[in-house]
From TrEMBL:
<dbReference type="InterPro" id="IPR054496">
    <property type="entry name" value="E217_GP41"/>
</dbReference>
<protein>
    <recommendedName>
        <fullName>Bacteriophage protein</fullName>
    </recommendedName>
</protein>
<dbReference type="Pfam" id="PF22759">
    <property type="entry name" value="E217_GP41"/>
</dbReference>
Amino acid sequence: MAKQWLREIRLKVGSNSQEIDVSQMRIKFVVRHWELQTPAHSDIIIYNLSDETANRIKKEFTTVSLEAGYRENFGLIFRGEVKQIRKGRENPVDTYLAILAANADRAYNYAVVNKTLAAGHTFRDQVETCIQAMKPYGVQVGHIADLGSQKMPRAASLFGMARDVLRRVCFATNMSWSIQNDRLQIVPNREAAPGEAIVLNSRTGMIGLPVQTIDGILVRCLLNPQIVPGKRVKIDQASVQEARFNPSFTAEVHNAMIPSTADDGLYKVLAVDHIGDTRGQPWYSDLTCIRADGQGPLPLGLAQRGIALDPEQS
């Protein structure tokens, strides 16, 4: 088990030809990753840069890379394209430079497919076409689940945004696609990505107690760059604080949609927020999870935000 002390951070802002490292400044950040069909994004605030450096970042640089964690558990938590940079003053003494960035934003907005697939092609062939369209924008292949062996009886003309083709494929196969740190992944709605589960308890960095809510099982732990959407985590079932049902007559549907807890303690991460302040208390990862075995209802709130309900379970 890695020791979780001595915080580490590396923040680089740059362009295709050059970059600067501002890791020694005070930095606050919130990085949000979801298993959703929209880009992850980050809000990063850098304090008390010189006017020359702040103006250079604002005028010249278009990409940002953020690594964080602890000395023995340190890794990339965000890489993306800058969408907005603004300067401000928090008080009469401290100035800041705020960066809003999105991961794979250009791939999401500009990757276009224009290809005809012959009769007998599969869903995987359609996904491969989308991957080729996204590669020029820096997207690589991550975990792609088994999409089945069904062969299409007719040819298909794929024309339009790659994201729309991926959305149709995932709807047809009951999966969700997302781009996590420039890697396209497709994971079944009711299964986790392969790999060993990360154990979360008081000895490995869990903070407080997990809570069962209408949005899923909410867990907070010390910042862990290994936790990404689709990953499995293992939580002691006895530590999960169960939700209270609403006793009103009209709340029956609400109560029925509360995700159930897992007897074996294995959960799938649907969303993770990394929150940090190099001169303050926050250095956390906030997780939203559901059962890894696919049993029980999918949180309605998450379904409304883009994750399809399993028709067999809804």
